[in-house]
Amino acid sequence: xxxxxxxxxxxxxxxxxxxxxxxxxxxxxxxxxxxxxxxxxxxxxxxxxxxxxxxxxxxxxxxxxxxxxxxxxxxxxxxxxxxxxxxxxxxxxxxxxxxxxxxxxxxxxxxxxxxxxxxxxxxxxxxxxxxxxxxxxxxxxxxxxxxxxxxxxxxxxxxxxxxxxxxxxxxxxxxxxxxxxxxxxxxxxxxxxxxxxxxxxxxxxxxxxxxxxxxxxxxxxxxxxxxxxxxxxxxxxxxxxxxxxxxxxxxxxxxxxxxxxxxxxxxxxxxxxxxxxxxxxxxxxxxxxxxxxxxxxxxxxxxxxxxxxxxxxxxxxxxxxxxxxxxxxxxxxxxxxxxxxxxxxxxxxxxxxxxxxxxxxxxxxxxxxxxxxxxxxxxxxxxxxxxxxxxxxxxxxxxxxxxxxxxxxxxxx
Length: 413
Hints:
Layout: H1 2-20, E1 23-30, H2 37-55, E2 78-85, H3 90-102, E3 109-111, H4 115-128, E4 132-134, E5 150-152, H5 157-175, E6 181-187, H6 190-205, E7 209-216, H7 224-233, E8 237-241, H8 244-256, E9 263-266, H9 274-280, E10 288-291, H10 302-315, H11 321-340, H12 345-353, E11 356-358, E12 366-368, E13 381-386, E14 389-394
Parallel strand pairs: 1-2, 1-3, 3-4, 4-5, 6-7, 6-8, 8-9, 9-10
Antiparallel strand pairs: 10-13, 11-12, 13-14
């Protein structure tokens, strides 16, 4: 009896020890190689920063799960990311989502940055009944599909487009600027097509005239003809839906062809990637775009500053709007699993629907989802690159710097 009791005690201790060290695996699908690998690596660092805060005690950070080590409602279980590389290829992203679910046995997915990849990957998750938390894919259509398991943190292209034209109205009414026409330039993908659609819709809604509609293939190597079309149409404002490599190519081609409109506004993507300023140097100045958290606010917001310190240890650069959304997606997923007290997908989905995180991490003030899975608190400001730094210029009520309008000609810089 004694030996049996001793063996039983050892087995129970082993079992409890195993429970305390249990891991919860989720898939993280990003473009780790390929044309926007720089962005994918930033996404990976954001995921790792979130895991550092979730899995280790950080009582100095005012976020869910930061004070504990692991998920307290699941015996301190640690969150583990299983990364997959979609190379900005929708078919590969779809295949990787299926592999992560069926072979890696992940309990949820986060990703995929590119809206064109997020779309098929999230359909896979829906088919298997697996929660999918999207950080930074902005196509407005993603939350209009009636999906049960899909949730998104980011501002949508519809929100951004409406906000851009509201800002133009403000510039006309308050500053007296003459703005009548616009053009839209966009990658011919899920992201670009929906951004262009929303730009045309809100432009017409507010009484502006679209004089050029310019699609191009993602990963282009030459955009001379596209820029010549813009130059011939001569719009007052150009709207861009372009990711990093394409954004840099367009700016350089603008300079080569000696063209700039009065203003350029960019949806999420290449503009807000710090690599764009690093690689373009002074040529990055005066272009504008959407930001969920203007970088100049980082030192002024304690929770964001602390998160940024941890991110910077990995990235060597400050966190930005895209990586902040990726970071938030992992925090939101872990918080929901912890509140559910289980990895059962139905319980996690219910917990996600009940998410109500109040935080200064973003200018919207937190994260709360509607019945479609869209974060209804998502909000953005417009920043302009001035002297190599992002400065908040619109709306005027939150501006920290006077907007430079119009963009100076290349030969006058």
